[in-house]
Fold:
Amino acid sequence: MEAVELKQKHKLLKTWDYNWNPLDRGYTDKILYLNLSTNEIKEKNVPPMMKEKFVGGRGYGLKLLWDATKPDTKWNDPENEINISSGPIGGITQYSGTGKSICVSISPQTDIPIDSNVGGFFGPFLKFSGFDVIEIQGKADREVIVFIDGVNHKVEIYEAPYDLVDSHILGEILTEMYADDEKDKKNIGVVSTGAAAGKSLIGMLNFSFYDSKRKLVRLKQAGRGGIGTVFRDKKIKAIVCKIPGVKGNLNNVVDLEAIMERGRRFNKEMRDFDDSQAQMRSKGTVHLTNIMNDYDLLPTCNFKYGNHPDAYRIHSDVYKERFTQGVPDGCWIGCNMSCAKGVDNYMLRTGPYKGQNVIVDGPEYETASSLGSNAGIFNPDFTIEANFYCDTYGICTITWGTILGFVMDCYENGILNDERTGGLKLNFGNADEAMELLHQLARGEGFGLIAGLGVRKMKEMFSERGWGDPQFLQDIAMENKGLEYSQYVSKESLAQQGGYAMTNKGPQHDEAWLIFMDMVNNQIPTFEDKAEALHYFPMFRTWFGLQGLCKLPWNDVEPANNAETDEPAKVPEHVDNYVTIYKAVTGNTNFDKYELIRQSERVYNFQRIFNIRRGYGLRKHDAQPYRAAGPVTPEEYASRAERYDKQMKEIIGVDPEGKSIEEKIAITRKYREERYEQLLDAVYLRRGWTKNGVPKIEHLKKIGMDLPELIEIIKDKQE
Ligand code: SF4
Structure:
């Protein structure tokens, strides 16, 4: 369908004009509220308390969601919201990684708030149009498109009565339709999803960015937790934002020169060290694939193993050759890390777009693993094609790959068979059948629909139907809180087990990644050390989501002298960059690296109490599947028998000699499960929580987050 044809189909349902004011020190202090049930559009002021305690981004999204929902609001109730916000630093162009947005909603997968961060243009463009956050409530009774016109200062809702939904087409056509000419395309940001989002619980959102060099619309994903499913349930086809252009100092920061100075320093580090450090500019995050394989950390066959002899086929050098080199691949203006790599002119071999040449955004590391080794598939063409289809169909590649691993493990163990899968032979490594499962989901057919429910719901369904041993299903189902694990093997890192299963939203590595500190470098040997790391790093990383920042420039390149600093894992010079930039944007001089952590701690504890308000957020919800902690099967134990036997003898103090493999699995399991419980105790203590994982009132007072509505939820849970 052409843009002209599409435009003729749109029917205006509502238009609303607003007064635009320039930003002031990173903020507009305005909320754009839409109710799609009634087509109400209005502007609300950000209350001073909200700005002070919740800062922006994830904080704003959570606060609005708390106010708008009841404790028992379901994901598909009209009052559930999708809130998208960048943050005060979001949208500056003088430092790398400053264009992120955070999307927040009640998740269809977890029944608690999900926060998912994403690059692309929309978040900064929303700010430049006059709003710190968009709050979308209600459900449309027909397919709609929302248009935020930051040029003429109006917001419009259009009926969009056509079938087209897949993101790679919709993003392209809507960009063309709303741009005045080719040059204007860089002023359009589109949020969309795809066909599979509306037929599953694992839908994600695509945020577009216009690649002027390639003259193509490209996509970045808010992947985790099913927000794309909520988007389709509200019958939103797309949200489009248009601005007059990006130039100079649109954030109206207080001290632009201070930001530019840090930006220049960082850019020099990228020029000097990227090639010898992470190679982000040539490989993106996929540089991790072989490193993870070397350290036995690359999820393989549903997280059974951490490496594989065929992993050389998905080595980062293989992907480097597939990625177009020498083009600026920043997903926001001014990002010198430039890691948004892409495969150009990829000819699709399957599915509805078979035979077409497309650009594939990625694969990133998580996709190379999830749609590769975790399914026992070591074929980059499968991974690239599945990456494309997950994106355009609107589902998360991490989630889908962990689902695929689980389904294949069930098939290999006889829990699933041809009759139950509708004829699909889902052995590890079967790329053709795996691809067909994905297309089935997008068509809303067969076993694809069951897979689209996610690992937790499948586990429950299979148990109820008597398919397989419930305990075994529990052990191999790589989910916590209803969210699928992201792509690192945590068996040998107790701290990372906590970093995954103690998260607020479910096991996603954006909260804590401690494997190297813990397992490889042995820098945090005691429970107290691990607890300190599981306090500092989740809080530090939360801060990026309050500000509109990308985490990657923090530690994917390091200053020359970083190893000689007191705390190299924290990258102190970069922390100082962020403190400087925050002060330079907002003019808030009462800020340092300690207040940075406190800002996050307020929002982090708020989110924990939000979970508790909804009946979750307690110790039992931080339990992990045993496969995240140790070997479930004799096959797994035998594959690393030397390591496990040595640990049994030297650490547990039991002689493995003469013991059966089942006995050894049981001894190892008892030890590891006890250690995890001890870790929970230590971390809760450090975080100021009770033994049941509930924030203590005295702790909330200490961090300035003792809001009456929070105290009300936790006051009888203090023991
Ligand atoms: S580092 Fe990569 S993901 Fe982050 S903003 Fe830059 S290009 Fe985007």
Q: What stands out?
A: The longest helix spans residues 661-687.
